[in-house]
Design goal:
The chain is α/β, with parallel strands linked by helices. The protein is built from six helices and five strands; from the N terminus they run E-H-E-H-H-E-H-E-H-E-H. A five-stranded parallel beta sheet has the order 3-2-1-4-5, sandwiched between helices.
Length: about 140
């Protein structure tokens, strides 16, 4: 059994998320998705549109996903990695992690056995939450 871990914000689910999760699932038998907690989203990206527990519930209901959990708010990603115990970590195409630096950090943390892969970008036009929000704003908001 190969356990795969993917992570992200998953605010306003779109085709880019689906592609990422399908690609992540293809690397193993079980997909565990770590949904960023609200404080992490605020700190690193934007004010979340949907609360973390709702995003985890939505992500957990998607076909490629076996389990979705809300990430910890302690700033140490390796605590979550140790909890999930993945064989493979799949990064999204637009996630800021440097693949080689992550591999080195995993090695330093005693987690060097974990393989790191990166998903590729989907060709869909609205493959990012910020693009969707921008389009809604351009249309004058929701009527």
């Amino acid at each position: 059994m190969v356990r795969v871990m993917a992570s992200g914000v998953f605010d306003l689910i779109h085709p880019g998320h689906i592609s990422y999760l399908q690609q992540a699932r293809s690397f193993g038998d079980e997909l565990v998705v770590v949904v960023a907690c609200d404080d992490t989203v605020r700190k690193n990206k934007h004010e979340p549109i949907t609360p973390d527990y709702m995003r985890a519930k939505i992500v957990g209901s998607l076909k490629p996903v076996d389990v979705a959990i809300v990430g910890k708010n302690n700033g140490d990603i390796f605590d979550t990695v140790r909890e999930v115990k993945p064989d493979v970590i799949v990064l999204g195409f637009d996630q800021h992690f440097d693949t080689e630096k992550l591999r080195e950090s995993l090695e330093k943390e005693g987690l060097g056995h974990i393989r790191v892969e990166r998903a590729t970008e989907t060709a869909d036009d609205l493959n990012a939450t910020r693009r969707i929000v921008k389009k809604i704003k351009e249309m004058g908001g929701v009527q």
